[in-house]
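Q: Given only this backbone (127 positions), what sequence would you predict?
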């Protein structure tokens, strides 16, 4: 699979983070963005047959990243889910990793190479 054929959904309530993520990864992957867990679920409903990796911010209003992933995974369990957070590792993230709700978590500011490697490894594991 060509990298540009890999479709990613990035969910974050901060427009600046969405912009930075899109700018950093748009030349490597096809990037969809959403500003909330609810919008993320709507994007998945519309594009679940294309999206293979979802990366969500942890702290968002109304629905945090793990809550969003749990809802998304109920419908689309074949997608790979990651959490990206500007805060410390916590019990909820630990539980999501141990329960395989999410495959990995990353901290902000994010390291492009680390996320790219994780996406590539996850996509390779699908093949």
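A: Predicted residues:
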């Amino acid at each position: 699979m060509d990298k540009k054929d890999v479709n990613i959904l990035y969910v974050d309530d901060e427009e600046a983070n969405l912009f930075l993520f899109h700018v950093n990864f748009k030349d490597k992957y096809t990037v969809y963005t959403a500003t909330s867990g609810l919008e993320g679920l709507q994007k998945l409903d519309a594009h679940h047959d294309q999206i293979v990796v979802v990366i969500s911010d942890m702290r968002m209003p109304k629905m945090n990243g793990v809550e969003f992933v749990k809802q998304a995974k109920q419908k689309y369990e074949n997608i790979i889910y990651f959490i990206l957070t500007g805060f410390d590792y916590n019990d909820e993230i630990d539980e999501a990793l141990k329960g395989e709700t999410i495959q990995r978590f990353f901290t902000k500011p994010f390291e492009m190479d680390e996320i790219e490697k994780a996406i590539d490894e996850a996509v390779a594991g699908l093949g």
